[in-house]
Structures are given as structure tokens and as C-alpha cells.
Amino acid sequence: MAVFEVKHPLVKHKLGLMRHKSISTKDFRELASEVARMLTYEATRDLETEPHNTHGWAGPVEVERIKGKKITIVPILRAGLGMMDGVLDLIPSVKVSVVGLYRDETTLEPVTYFSKLAGNMASRTALILDPMLATGGSLVATVDMLKEVGCTSIRGIFLVAAPEGIERLQHKHPDVDLYVAAIDERLDENGYILPGLGDAGDKIFGTR
Ligand SMILES: O=P(O)(O)OC[C@H]1O[C@H](OP(=O)(O)OP(=O)(O)O)[C@H](O)[C@@H]1O
Ligand SMILES: O=c1cc[nH]c(=O)[nH]1
Ligand SMILES: [Mg+2]
């Protein structure tokens, strides 16, 4: 399993803005989308291309186009929706496979309440989207769901990941690579990431 912590200055700067305790819903939402766009650029860096002939302004020209497995993005409700626009800016024609999970506040275990996946998942690369990888329970449950329908190529895109969540994924699904803007220090006693972002879902949706 590989974990790519994207250390681009723009990513660091924007994530730093997101950590401010008084950030507005509007700014948090915009920044989540912008950072997601940059992480997507990295997470798609190794997509294979193939030669393709097109009609150029001065006659036929050979160009490259993406080949191989088609992509589906998998936003985890709710907070993963806050990353979707940024990702779709770069890969607009992907299918969207939505899964709904929340963490039980006492056990911290994930509860699944929705799943609507794209067809033919076995032939697709899945890009899971969620701002926060905390205990890793929600991610592991999502990967379980994707593997159950035959998906074999799975990556996760997160804004902030805790070492505890990375370790859990490594143990359960070592074939899944991660692209993150930051690996933070640890979880607090309530399972929140420190220094983290707080509750990303509440900040994106303006709830609480
Ligand atoms: O790694 P874990 O310990 O599973 O925690 C991470 C999950 O918790 C948050 O969702 P939450 O349960 O708050 O749902 P929400 O997106 O609806 O707010 C977050 O967006 C992840 O999905
Ligand atoms: O720090 C955390 C952990 C789980 N979910 C969040 O939104 N934030
Ligand atoms: Mg939440």
C-alpha cells in the first residue's frame, strides 16, 4: 500500500486556511473542492494513455487519450460530496457511485445507509472521496462494498488522514493506495483527528 502525501505549496496553503477555527461554510466548501482538484491531479498521474488520430488545424495529428479502465468516483455521504465538484472539474465524464455511511458516535463504527454504484464495477478504477480518514472504519467498509461487486482497482482521496486510519487500511486492504493533503498527528478520545479540521461534514453543510 502506498500513501502519497501531496506536498505542493498550494495544497499546504489551502489546507492551512481550512484549519482556521472560524472559517465560513462558503470558504471551507470552496477550499475542499480546490484541494480535491489538486489531489485528483496526483491520483490520476499514472493513468495509461494510447495514441489516437485526430484532425488537427494543419491536417491529421496523432494525440494521446486515456485508455484502460474507466473511472468511477465514490463520494462517501455526506462529507465526500464536498470534494466532488473539484474532482469533476478534472474528470468530468466519470460515473458517480454514491455510498452513505455515518460513524456511530459511541462505538465509532460505520453504519451503512445507502449505496448506488455504477454498473460494471469490475472494469472500473474507483476513486473514493472523503475529507477525513480517522479510525478508518468508514473507508474499510466502503472498500468492502466495492470489492463485493468485483472492483479490483481502488484508490482513496482524503484531505486529512490519521495514522490510525492508515494503519487499519494497511491491515485490511493493503492493495488500496491513498492520496492525501496531510497526515496528521493522532485521534483524540472521541475519534476526531488532531490537529485535523473538526467535523468536515458539518463544516461543508453548515449544520450543527
Ligand atoms: O475514519 P472514520 O473513523 O470512519 O471517520 C471518518 C468518517 O467520519 C466522517 O463522516 P461522518 O460520520 O461524520 O458523516 P457525515 O459525512 O454525514 O458528517 C467523515 O466524513 C468520514 O466519512
Ligand atoms: O476528525 C474527524 C473525524 C471524523 N470525521 C470528521 O469529520 N472529522
Ligand atoms: Mg460528520
From TrEMBL:
What does this protein do, in the record's words? Catalyzes the conversion of uracil and 5-phospho-alpha-D-ribose 1-diphosphate (PRPP) to UMP and diphosphate.
Show the GO MF annotations. Answer: GTP binding; magnesium ion binding; uracil phosphoribosyltransferase activity
Which cofactors go with this protein? Mg(2+)
According to its UniProt entry, one GO biological process term is:
uracil salvage
Q: What is the lineage of its organism?
A: Bacteria, Pseudomonadati, Thermodesulfobacteriota, Desulfuromonadia, Desulfuromonadales
Q: What is its EC number?
A: 2.4.2.9
Q: What HAMAP family does its record include?
A: Upp_B
Catalytic activity reads: UMP + diphosphate = 5-phospho-alpha-D-ribose 1-diphosphate + uracil
Give the metabolic or biological pathway.
Answer: Pyrimidine metabolism; UMP biosynthesis via salvage pathway; UMP from uracil: step 1/1
Q: Where does 5-phospho-alpha-D-ribose 1-diphosphate bind?
A: R78, R103, D130, P131, M132, L133, A134, T135, G136, G137, S138, D199
Q: Which top-level group of life is the source organism from?
A: Bacteria
Domain Phosphoribosyltransferase stretches: 7-207
Q: What name is this protein filed under?
A: Uracil phosphoribosyltransferase
User: What does the record say about how the cofactor binds?
Assistant: Binds 1 Mg(2+) ion per subunit. The magnesium is bound as Mg-PRPP.
Sorted alphabetically, which InterPro entries does this protein's record hold? PRTase-like, PRTase_dom, Upp_B, UPRT, UPRTase/APRTase
Query: Per the record, GO CC terms?
Result: cytoplasm
Question: Family assignment?
Answer: Belongs to the UPRTase family.
- Binding of uracil: at which residues? I193, G198, D199, A200
Protein activity control: Allosterically activated by GTP.
Give the UniProt keywords, A-Z: Allosteric enzyme, Glycosyltransferase, GTP-binding, Magnesium, Nucleotide-binding, Transferase
